[in-house]
Amino acid sequence: MTTTDMGTLPLAGISIVEVSSFVAAPLCGMTLSQLGAQVIRVDPLGGGADIGRWPLSATGTSIYWTGLNKGKRSAAIDLRAAAGQELVQRLIVESDGIVVTNAASLSCIGHELLAAKRSDVIHVQLLGRGDGSTAVDYTVNASTGFPLATGPVNHSGPVNHVLPAWDVCCGLYAALAVVAAVRRREVSGAGACISLALEDVALATAGNLGLLTEPQVNGTQRQRLGNAIYGQYGQDFTSQDGVAFMVVTLTGRHFRDLVDATDTGRAVAALAAALDVDFADEGARYRYRDVLSGLFAPWFADRTAAEISAALSDTTVLFERYRDFAQVAEDRRVTANPLFTQLHQPGVGDYLAPGMPAAFDGAHPASAPAPALGHDTADVLREYLSMTTADIERLADANIIVG
């Protein structure tokens, strides 16, 4: 079983309006869609700032945009025009009264205005910073310490992460906030005004992981470790045929199995005696990681990747070879994974697309294609605002809508 009937999903029957661009807010909407909600994107005429964001398919369609908007509907409405603003307000109020947006300057869909029209409206506003000023993932990352603790040990400059971690975390926090607000409204009838700042997500994560607590209470801070793991023994090694592996030992048993597999028992015991330490202690393994890695490295260098995989597969050692994205896309963890189903995306082609990572009753809710810009405008206006064909044609003739 690889898909779930949309009618059985927890948010089935709920409609959500999304006015968004880039990563966090679209990811929130897509997550809610995968949980069964009907998510209606309100797009500006011609598309938002991210409509053509790289990577692009051979036809020029944004693989990025379609990837984050799977399963949604798109209504293209001119939000600069008063008539377009009124349409969007009505769409929010007359559907289920739930809107998710990162368009902070769009006062026509502000909470107070919408709440005056519908008291139980749920309004989720994603911000850059808590004070309302602008920030994006890359500037937030720079401001919260992570790039100066990332990269090779002796590197002196910042190293950015390719993953927009704060966008992703913020989008998932926002989806959780919507679910919580819907639940509260069901119980009490109360709406919600929710704001969520990208920078606050990053700061909370740094605090929760102890990265901000350590300098406050110890006067120390996390330093660069290269590919080592802080407080544990973990290191990358390269095989005889040039394949890189990440090896991790979180427990005493993991470490003993690594020692046995690499036939370094006597050397590790001698090292422990010379240093007067017990490598059953994870702190000792971390503190003397460089010396231990020097003992293990020749075993990896003398063996092929296939030999290393075969030997470590019979142990409890946590390991994996490094792969690039193209290799991952061809791996059975994608091709044989029920998380992924075949999807035809107009403008992009046929590919294996991920659904909801959480499985409900043993099945992953599958993804549907992203909409063409404005494809659903007329249907949405008929369905939610009871507009006639003549009404819709008048709006189209006035360039208030497209689609």
TrEMBL record:
InterPro entries reported for this sequence: CoA-transferase_III, CoA-Trfase_fam_III, CoA-Trfase_III_dom3_sf, CoA-Trfase_III_dom_1_sf
Keywords linked to the UniProt accession: Isomerase
Top-level lineage group: Bacteria
Protein name: 2-methylfumaryl-CoA isomerase
Gene3D superfamilies per the UniProt record, alphabetical: Crotonobetainyl-coa:carnitine coa-transferase, domain 1 (3.40.50.10540), formyl-coa transferase, domain 3 (3.30.1540.10)
Residues spanning the signal sequence: none
Pfam families (alphabetical): CoA_transf_3
Molecular function terms, GO-annotated: isomerase activity
Species of provenance: Mycobacterium spongiae
